[in-house]
Specification:
four-stranded antiparallel β-sheet; Alpha-Beta Plaits; globular; 75 residues; 29% helix; single chain; alpha+beta
Amino acid sequence: MSSRKVRLSYPPSIIDKPIINQVIRRYDITINILQAHVSPDEGLLDIDINGDDETIEQAISWLKRQGIEIQPIAL
C-alpha cells in the first residue's frame, strides 16, 4: 500500500459538497485529514491518501475534475 500527502484547494462553489466521502467510496481508498481550514470563501485540506499507486492516481484525477487544485506536500 502506498501513501501520498497532498493539499486540496477547494473553490467556493463546491465547499458544501461531500467530496472526501465521494472519493473514498468511489475509489476504496483511505484518507486521513491532517489539517483543514474551511470558510465560505475557500477550503484547504492537507490529507494523506492511502491505497495502491494506480488507485491513488485515479482518485487524484477525479478530484481535479471536480475543480480541486492539488499540490504535493511534505509534512
